[in-house]
Each structure stands twice: as structure tokens, then as C-alpha cells.
Amino acid sequence: MRLDAGLVFLSDSRTNAGVDAISTARKMTVFEEPGDRVMVLLTAGNLAISQSVRQILAEGRDEKRSLWTARDMFEAASIVGDAVRQVHKRDAHALREAGIEFNVSLIFGGQIRGERVRLFNVYAAGNFVEATPENCYFQIGEAKYGKPIIDRVVQPSLPLGEAAKCALISMDSTLKSNISVGLPLDLLVYEGDALRVTRFVNIDDKNAYFRMIRDTWGQRLRQVFGEIQDPEWDAGNPAEYPLARQGEADRWGQPVRARRERNNGRA
Fold first, then answer.
1. Each residue of 150-160: pLDDT tens digit?
2. How far apart are CA 43 and CA 27, in angstroms?
3. Is the pLDDT of residue 17 over 70?
4. What is the CATH number of domain 2-221?
5. 3-state SS string over the chain?
6. How far apart are CA 171 and CA 163, in angstroms?
7. Reported confidence tier of residue 61, pLDDT bands at 50, 70, 90
8. Could you give phi then psi for residue 265, rounded to 5 degrees?
């Protein structure tokens, strides 16, 4: 999430090749030069590809053009894209021969001294898009289960603490619904203009705050669900929020009755 106050990054650590081949690998990498730059890389997709990209970026410290020499975050994102293309050039043909798709996606963000915080989504082709005030967050990997809460809550003005809470609730929703996502989690909250990592935590199933999030969110969802009015099916009995207006039930049912009459009662 790219917010007015800074950045929030959250990743899980489960990798698998099936329900009986589950392992753990970190998907967050931090590149930091305190006082000058902080950059964070999140990865999803084929683990071998993402690890290769990360290794190229880490080993490039002494190169003339690297994350450590980039003038701004746009150039840094371009360097990440170039690393993806380098791995594609080396491995894509062999993967295709083995029937494996070149599948990797990355979130890359941070701040370089002299400019604002920025966030990018880097694709498998090495191209990328930047977060905007209208779309201030990115998700990669298994995104659909945790997306609704972010869409309803996150906006650029959201304080970092609330954004971190929202990210954890979103991740918990995904953990609940998809076995391919699992603990531990890495959470990094970057305060704009700090130019160093100030808040980082590795979260496992013993973390008291995350356990509270998991228990409280489930309880409150059930509570709110129970408080919402049930649908009113009797059109003759007025309700504050009727599901159907007077006569709608007949119109909905008419095509079914007509079809049954034409077929001598057979549905």
C-alpha cells in the first residue's frame, strides 16, 4: 500500500507444488542504505524465477547501474524489470520445453533521498505500472479472498497503523480460504522520509496481535451478519428494505409457470 504517510508491505511465506509438497520461503527482500534509500521487493509465482531475480539484484551492488546507484525509484523499478528479462532470456526456453509457464510477479517500492515514496507492480515481461492516488495498492499471488476489505477501507489518507491492520485482516481472510497461503508473515511498515526501516515484524501463529485479529474479525463478521435484516419475501407485508416490490414475485414466476403449462406440467 502506498499512502500519504508511507508504505505498508505484507507477504506470506508458503510455497508448494501440491497439497503434499508444502515448504516455506521468504517472499520479502529489503534493500537498505540508511539515510539514502530503502527499497522493498515482494515476489509471487515460480520460486526459482523469483529467487533468481532477487539474486541478480543483490549481486549487482558493485555494478555501475544497480539499485544502489539508481537516481530515483523509477530507474530502480526499471532495473528490477531488467533482472526479470535477464532471467527470462536464460530460462524461458527450457521452462517452455518442460511445459512450465514463465510465471513471476513482483511488488517493488520504497524511497530514495530527494523524492517521494513510490510503489510499482512489475510483471513477468519486465514492464511495470505505478500506484496512484486512485489505485494506491497492489496485490500479487492469491489476491481474490483478501481484496474486498482493502477495496472498502484503504485510501491514501489512511494512517499507517490502520493500513497495517487492514493488510493483516486481508491476509487472514486469504489464509482462511486458501491452503496455498500460510504463516509466517513478514510485515514492514515504512514511515515516509525515514530512509531506514523502522517497523518490521515476522508473524507466526504465536503472535498475540494476529491471533486477536483472527478471533475478533471472525466474531464481528458473524455479529454484523446476524444484525442485517433477512430478506422479506411476502410482498404484501411491507418492510423497510423489501427484496421485491409488490407484483415482482409474480413477474419472476410467470415464465416458469408458462413453460410448465406448455409441457403439460413437466418442468
1. 999 999 999 99
2. 5
3. no
4. 3.60.20.10
5. CEECCEEEEEECCEEECCCCCEEECCCEEEEEECCCEEEEEEEEECHHHHHHHHHHHHHHHHCCCCCCCCCCHHHHHHHHHHHHHHHHHHHHHHHHHCCCCCCEEEEEEEEECCCCCEEEEECCCCCEEECCCCCCCCCCCCCCCCHHHHHHHCCCCCCHHHHHHHHHHHHHHHHHHCCCCCCCEEEEEEECCCCCCCEEEEECCCCHHHHHHHHHHHHHHHHHHHHCCCCCCCCCCCCCCCCCCCCHHHHHHHHHHHHHHHCCCCC
6. 12
7. confident
8. 90, -5
In the numeric block, the cell 507492480 is attached to 121
Cα–Cα distance between 6 and 140 in angstroms, integer?
Answer: 20
- Whole-angstrom Cα distance, residue 75 to residue 223? 48
The alpha carbon torsion through 123, 96, 83, 192 (nearest 10 deg) reads 30
C-alpha cell at 32: 537498505
Question: pTM of the prediction?
Answer: 0.88
Q: For the chain, what are the domain ranges? A: 2-221, 231-267
Q: Which one, of 189, 156, 180, 147, lies nearest residue 28 by Cα? A: 189
Q: Which residues contact 27 (CB under 8 A, 6 or more apart)?
A: 11, 12, 13, 42, 43, 44, 50, 186
